[in-house]
Amino acid sequence: MGRPDRIAPGDVPALELRGLGKTFHLRSGGVLRRRSTALHAVRDVDLVLPRNGILGLVGESGSGKSTTGMMALRLLEPTAGRILLEGTDITTLGSAALKPWRQKMQVVFQDSYSALDPMFTLQQVVAEPLRIHGIGTPDERAERALAWLERVGLHRGYGSRYAHELSGGQRQRVAIARALILGPSVLIADEPTSALDVSVKAQIINLLQDLQQDMGLSILFISHDLSVVRSLCDRVAVMFAGRIVEAAETEGIFGAARHPYTRSLLDAIPQLDPRNRRRRQFRSREDLAADIPVLSRAELAGDVAPSDTPRLVPVAPGHLVEARVTADPDTRSGA
Amino acid sequence: MSTDPMTGPAAAPEMLSRPGRRQRGPLWFAWRRFLANRAAVAGGVVLALIALLAVVAPLITPAGPNDQDFLSEALAFPSGAHWFGVDDLGRDFFTRIVHGARVSLTIGFAAAAFSVIIGIPLGAAAGYFGGRTDWIIMRVIEIFSVVPPLLAAMLLGALTGGGFWMIVAIAALFGWVQVCLLVRAQIKAFKEKEFVRAAQALGGGPSYVIRVHLIPNSISPIIIGFVLAIPMAMMLEASLSFLGVGVPPPTPSWGQMINTGLDFMYFYWHLAVFPTIALAVTVLATSLFGDGLRDALDPTMKAQ
Amino acid sequence: MIGYVLQRVLSVLTTFFVVSIIIFLMMHSIPGGPFDGGDMPVPDAVREKLNAQYGLDQPLYVQYARYMWGVVRLDFGVPFQSPGETVLELLGRAWVPSLVLGGLGMLVGVPLGMLLGMAAALRRNSWIDYLASAVATLGLTVPVFVTSMLLILVFSVWLGWLPSSGWGEPQRWILPIIAYATIPMATYARYMRSAMLDTLNKPFVTVLRAKGLSERRILFQHVLRNSAIPLVTVFLPMFIGTATGSIFVEAMFRVPGLGNYFVSSIRTRDYPLEMALILMITVMFCIAYLISDILYAWLNPRIRHGGRRK
Fold it and tell me: Which string of b and e fits B208-223 if b means at least 16 CB within 10 Å?
């Protein structure tokens, strides 16, 4: 169920990350022997979120996918690379210059409980973006907030309630209303459904899907839940140990995964029908990290120079895999 | 799946139904916890009574607190006319004690208010910005924690000669530390929460986030810091006045009266007994009330 | 661990110097010197001579440097209020009653408070629990001179059993010792109770019970040892409270100890004595602070490597 009609090629992408990286310096030891170790949480990430599209970013916890999302939002300062929002570089904008751009990019978090200020009424929560950006009078803001509560499927009577009075799904609806009230073009959804029950999860996914269509949103959907990603996203990028190891149209990932890490992720999806059960192999991180595919130039979809350092190369139109590239087709191994 | 953009997509019918019965908020549970604590409720009631007495003091006392109207009856024992007797300078002792409550409570509340006013911004800055700001504020607090407040207060009192507002200032100087630490801890815990990140993602700057989100969410520790600062300030005032470096006479202060009572106790017991009991009861009631509020507002901080 | 200790020692030394400078500046920045005399006016010429004799006419940093150089050699100068002896001699005389009474007070108060707190934790909501709470609250909230006053009123004025002013014969010690003991007793009763309750509610105690260990062995082998850490940390505030309380106890019971001299030095602006007493107190507290930090780190392996408390 790909929706290629929605992606208008040639357009400036809604959001583009170029070579984004984040290195943390961990200090250890006492006064006498202070050591500093560099931890590369995210390394050299390139992502393109097309207008009106949904891009899934998947990977295990600690793979750097949330860090990437936080950097795209400029909630965390990247140590390398650039962030382009609608073609404008916002990487180094100061907070005042950044403020108008913040209207264009919003976020929904995983934990809907801590995402809403417990001291705010829901109407205040939803109206907060208008307040920060000084839009409208207090009465107008309240009215728009109540209208948005209805738009995400909550009765306006909830406007005077507090977050603790709601269920997880209802809270997530409020968080979505807050994120969208300014009419952003980009939504970063950081595991918005992984804390929810299965039935509620489907409702929230439907809500996001419909709002995306109504508003022409571009969504960066960060998740480790592959079944949700498969039903929602147009494209999927797989992150492992801070790098993107594979990126393709959704069907390309689920149908023709090339990277061993992607395959082990897919293997981990539970099968409903026991007859479909494959022999699963659970591989260690170290094992997976060492297993970098080697591809010959002949297998690639473009002209790529041979290289011994792993990098993303096209194996099919729009399908990128991190691999070493050899000139000679006979020396390849792996797949 | 097609939807009507106005009523909202995926609006399952039950979602649009009116909200049900209101649920109880955390403050309601805190109030219930407080009411279940008999000692705290008793402390609160006694404190309220003392505060009431202090407010209506001029109406219920036979003379002004400094009027030496009864010089001929100086040192008289308690009687129907003078409930607590007459002091050495011919003043009605009940009047003195009731006006002493005024002094003690005013100093307690004023000092607590100033402690909060100093403690909140410093605690918020330390907790929110961390790093160098936090380091500097914590080093200042470390100095305050090595110097015992009472000793330093005595020194300051002696050097400045005391006085009402000086005592308030000294008490606030040592009271803000507690408020600052409480607020700092709360803000440190809350600044990583996602609603704060959401506000930052919306373009809310540090002052907006601290003012609108973090300080309202620190209301429990602020109340706790406030009520715990009151008895400390009252104790400080009484101690300094007892040593003669606090509120100067003739302002009625219980600490001062206890010091005087010490000279008369073998012969005129009432001069020692009444201020001692008044001070003990007031400080005790305030502390019980404050401890109860703390336990009710923050069950995890319980330190019994 | 050695790194940690060094770090703490350095930090304490810094604190000590900062405090000494602040106190020194504070005492000299307030208008009015010791020879300005309200009661006994001193002629200007005489005052200048006296100021020069005591070095009070020098710039502040010179006075400070000279003073600290003296401190290193244990020379604190001569007290203004009794010029016949040095500050060191006066202190040497005054610490005896303070140490004897305060030490005995802690010696009585700490074990009593611990026993009370233990009993309260083991018999929750019984009369002994309420007694412990009452003792703890009274001792920690009511100023010690009020407690002392109540003791005097009951035992000496009303019942007439004991003398109300201390030092000299041992029966004069009894009331001051009780007054001193209230603070350690209250502190330890409160914290022992909460530490024990805390430990008793830990899952590992349930496991021990499930294993069939006797309550006695659980209590003595496991619970008590695990309740020890909070009791170490609480030693410092207890010690400070008791030391500060000594000023009031000695004033109430007219004991010729350090606390009494502290009060009189403050009243008479006796700089040398005042500075010496404050520096002594600061050193004492810094050492107590250090010991408590190190003990805490030593008892708690999680702190031992990196990190520090609060």
Answer: bbbebbbbebbebbbb
